[in-house]
Model the fold of this input.
Amino acid sequence: MSDRTLAVAFISPALLLLLAMSVFPLLWALYLSFTDYSATRGGPAHFVWFENYTAILASAQVHLRALTTLIYVVGAVTLQTVLGFAIAYLISRRTRGRGVLTTLFLVPMMLSPVVVGLFWRFMLDAQFGVINSMLGSLGLGQVEWLTRQRTALISLIVVDTWQWTPFIMLIALAGLTAVPKYLYEAASIDRASEWFKFRTITLPLVWPLLLIAVLFRAIEAFRLFDLVYILTNGGPGVSTETLSFHVYKVGFLGFNTGTASAYGILMVLIVIVLTQLYLRYLNKLKED
Amino acid sequence: MRLATAAMLVATTMAACGQDDGAQSSAPKAPATIPELTKDPLTLKFIWFDWPPAHALEDFANAEYAKERPNVTVKVNTVPNANWHDAMFTQFAAHKTDFDIAVLDSQHIGEAVTNGNILDITDFVKKNIDVKAYNPYLLAAYGQYPQAETGKRDENASLYGLPLLGDTWTMIYRKDLIGDKPPQTWDEMISVAEKCQTDNPGVSGLAFHQANGSDAAAVTYNTVNGVYGGNLWDAKTRKIDGVLNDAAGQEAMDVLVNKMKPLTAKGSGNWFIDEVNAAVAQGKACIAFNWIAASGGLLDPKQSTLGTTREQILDKLGFAPLPSQKTNLVPLGGMGMHVSAYSSEANQAEALNFMKWFEQADIQKKWAAAGGVPARTDALESPEFLNAGPFNKVYADSVPRMRDMWNVPEYARLVDIENTNVNAALNGAKNPKDALDDIAKQQQGVLDSGNRKGGGGL
Done:
């Protein structure tokens, strides 16, 4: 057996699996997005060309969900980045117990989002939740965390931050430990202040890595579904209904498969375009 | 570019091959006579949502049906209530189900029938079921399509299911706080709840469903709409806008949001069945509304702080039919049994045999004694049922007062629109009048789209 045949034999199973499980569904979804197909109503799929796409782009409901998603992504990722970097910075300055601390901080990230959602649903319950109980003991009033428009979205951001700050922390920690020590030593000799060292050495060197972490988290946050489903079910009303949650409703309540496919494709396109712009910025940063 | 074009062509060809021919647009017919049953071991599978009646059904069927069919095991697969519709209809969409009998809500029938997902059992019913034994509205609600909006069963309409569990809301009231006599009118009920809340700090006047999942908030609004003389739609003209949000509808929304909501516990805007039961069991509500079939746990001392025995709890809790106001309508709950069109022939035959067995008068009485809520009139009036639970008489008295929702293929989208908007109004995210107008407008849009595929559903 030649090297080439052997290579093909080894690669083929994985390639076929990838084609069957990822590429084909994506292409099929792309095809369905141009049709009026409904998974339950059956019947042949008729081409409606860009009708699904125009309906989605013109829909006020979609615009509202896009705004909700944007607020959520910006809020959650910003908070996670600030907290994650701050924790990583503090941990990196410790020499003892760093490993234990890092492991402890990583625990929320290891949990399933459904478990996290249910856990926080009980924690945030207005009547019986621990959070309100603590607020009550401090003499503060009850807060309707999950059933008021503003607090519901804030609750989602807080819960997501609780779970995913460790991810940013981990990457920031990797960046911080990779900064060459001699730079700090040279700065110390020059009697540079801590703030100066942070501003001119630490931040510029860790920043590109941090931006990659932000990219990963932003893509993840853009696809948010599970926490919404468990914590608020999109409510009150539709005020925490994200784009992903809305696609689920279009796909599984009305079984408008064609529309849901177009919606999904549009979301993928948006992520690809924004990621490309972001990567260009990253490359530019690298070159500079 | 060439690669993309080629990929698109491949996808188009494969997808086109994958489409069915659209021939199955109506439900296939079940045989009038039950085919020969297998003697081999067989598991008859149901799908329902996770609540006490589902577990009661599995225990009851395995204990009783096994006497007649020892080779058959009954398995009731359960999913969370919020996933119930999706769990059934995604399998229907795949034309392959891991269940033989779908327990469908009355409103799901339209979608299942028009998609050809369940068997037309009209001929089977004619030959095997005594239809005169039922309240005609119940038989129509759980099995007939198109639905009988008048409340009278259309003898000529097709049947697709038979009743499994009847249900409606009961008013649960604290006898020790508001007295033995339940309020008779809705206005009186609000006033009694208000006084009770004022007199008992820490106890809320009312507890009811407000969540935006399943049909929680929608049923609450529909109930208030009904008692204040409103209508959900004009079924003949398929008109919702202008009907739902007429003066009666506006008054109902005003009562719900401005008079009832302030009497509920803070943060109860996402409450459904379990949360309302928890509030009652923990002595946190003066008056509550819940589905009868889900109320059994309230009498369990292990789950209640109201007493250490069932009798002590019953000294404090009373169950009554809903108060009336301009009308005496109550919501129709419960579900029917429907045979999956994609089940194997042997399992479909077994499912039909089970349904015939289950609908017999003596079995319905045994089902009532086991915690079920029967639909046969003789079982409803039997001592076995009336003595099985303090709320069973409430159900028997409520049967002539029932009103269902719209039993149309677009149900899932209609109920989502209503749920989210009522939930928004109840939680201060939307002005009540705007919410009602939005429901009417958006639901009308769904109906007017005529179940059109593509470009919709947003």
About this structure: The two ends of chain A are 49 Å apart (CA to CA). Chain A touches chain B through 58 residues (CB under 8 Å). Chain A has twelve helices and no strands.
